[in-house]
Specification:
Length: 341
């Protein structure tokens, strides 16, 4: 494994796909990558590769809080498409899959591309922005059987009745019970939560009950919660979430330091605070970098945001910390009223 990581830093991409107006990362300049790479001619003869070879890269802020290119091999996405997409989610050749996340997000890549490709299902790709009106139109027009999005999009859609017959999946952020209830009221469907990290290739947990927690571990993955000294905590104790899997990515492109810190250990850090119940259900408490410490207490902004959403007339809420009088940290909340308020 270590040999694979260190060798991969010297493998240059053969093709780079990007929007011309977007600079992905100052440390890994896209223009330089293109100049150092080969130019693919139309109908280029396929190159014979091994399943462990570098297949593609996805940019993510990930567990380190800064944009990096995660290097993925062929094997991981093939095998996790079977384990997660087909055996866990149940994607089949009869499904129509629609995901609001684009292909440059991990969710978009595996849900819009790899799952449907492995299962011979249909996939709907929308090049436009995932605005509430556009997403609503796509759901009602194309009638997907599987719909995958983030909690904020479900919240934006759940303002009036919507015709939806899909299995509704969520990921990428904490899923409040309020959002599940509102979506169920408007669509008649529950939301089934998932969790994953780009570095871990695919989802590692899935909630089959339609409740807010991130569910139980998926075959091929293990998870645990530890304290700051990496000591495993008891059920219901909050700590740092780690996962273990053979489906870890190869590392970060041209970044041996963070590759060693994230991919080197047997248990990979996810960058989240969480706890695991006695029944094995994963509950998120927030990103480690997002948790605020005020007056000696750790405060999770998402819990305050969820409480604010319970008030009528509030559609969205964001809570941050700022320095106030005497350079002391305090909490500020930003609210978006509903359209009829």
């Amino acid at each position: 494994k270590d040999n694979i990581i260190h060798q991969s830093f010297f493998v240059e991409p053969k093709l780079v796909i990007r929007e011309s107006a977007i600079d992905i990362d100052n440390a890994v300049d896209v223009g330089t990558i293109v100049q150092e790479s080969y130019i693919l001619e139309p109908w280029h003869k396929p190159t014979i590769t091994n399943v462990n070879d570098l297949a593609f890269m996805l940019w993510t802020s990930g567990t380190t809080g800064r944009g990096k290119a995660v290097m993925q091999n062929h094997k991981n996405y093939i095998e996790t498409s079977r384990l997660v997409g087909v055996e866990t989610i149940g994607v089949s050749n009869k499904d129509k899959v629609y995901t609001t996340a684009k292909l440059f997000f991990a969710i978009g890549m595996y849900a819009s591309f790899f799952w449907p490709m492995y299962a011979s299902a249909e996939s709907y790709l929308d090049s436009g922005l995932s605005t509430p009106g556009r997403v609503r139109e796509n759901i009602e027009r194309f009638e997907p059987t599987i719909f995958y999005s983030v909690p904020i999009v479900y919240s934006q859609l759940a303002t009036r009745e919507i015709k939806c017959r899909a299995l509704c999946l969520a990921g990428g952020d904490r899923l409040p019970q309020l959002v599940i209830d509102r979506w169920h009221h408007c669509s008649g469907q529950l939301i089934y939560n998932t969790s994953g990290v780009t570095e871990g290739t695919n989802c590692y947990s899935y909630n089959k009950l339609g409740t807010p927690d991130a569910g139980t571990i998926i075959n091929g993955y293990s998870m645990r919660v530890v304290d700051d000294l990496d000591q495993v905590l008891l059920p219901n104790q909050v700590g740092r979430l780690q996962i273990k899997t053979e489906y870890k990515a190869l590392g970060y492109y041209k970044d041996p330091y963070w590759s060693e810190k994230v991919f080197g250990p047997e248990w990979m850090p996810t960058g989240d605070y969480a706890f695991i119940t006695e029944s094995g259900h994963l509950n998120y408490m927030g990103r480690i970098n997002d948790v605020i410490k005020i007056n000696g207490q750790f405060i999770n902004p998402s819990e305050i945001e969820e409480s604010l959403l319970n008030y009528s007339g509030i559609e969205q809420a964001a809570v941050i910390s700022r320095l106030g009088d005497n350079d002391l940290e305090h909490i500020e909340a930003y609210l978006v009223p509903t359209a009829n308020t």
